[in-house]
Amino acid sequence: IPGAPTGLGVELDTDGATVSWTIPSSPGGSIIRTRIKIEDGPDLEVAGSSHSSVSISSAWFSTGSQRVRLQAENSYGVGPWSEWSESFEVNAADADTYSDTYSDADAYSD
């Protein structure tokens, strides 16, 4: 199974945040997907092995202090969660203006 993603970074912009990471080693095959957990928010899913960043609309975040962490999956299983990112402040979009434009991420829940 893959290791945990490392090098987690978050860069804020006017539309939300860009989350970046270092793709983990993946014994047994390419990464199938990476899950992004937003603290006190939804899990998002990024398909494919070549992604090492994703833009997430502010609509996915609550207003205030946030953190994210990641988990990789390949054909052999799901790896461990990464450490939480440093805290960052988000001015979340109003729910009425929600947009599902979050790049290659899809909502995911267990």
How would you characterize this protein structure?
The structure is a single chain. Helices cover 0% and strands 47% of the residues. Strands 8-7-3-4-10 form a 5-stranded antiparallel β-sheet, with no helix packed on it. A 3-stranded antiparallel β-sheet has the order 1-2-5, with no helix packed on it. The protein has strands at 6-13, 16-22, 31-38, 43-47, 53-57, 64-66, 68-74, 77-78, 88-90, 105-108.
The H-and-E topology, N to C, reads as: EEEEEEEEEE
Query: How far apart, in Å, are the first and last alpha carbons?
Result: 19 Å
Q: Helix count?
A: 0
> Which structural class do you get from the secondary structure elements?
mainly beta
Our estimate of the beta-strand percent is: over 45%
User: Which strands sit side by side, in order, in the main sheet?
Assistant: 8-7-3-4-10
Count of β-strands: 10
Reported for the largest beta sheet, the result is: 5 strands, antiparallel
Summed over residues and divided by their number, the pLDDT gives a mean of: 79
The Rg value, from CA coordinates, equals 13 Å
Query: What is the approximate shape?
Result: elongated
Helix content: under 10%
Low-confidence stretches: 94-110
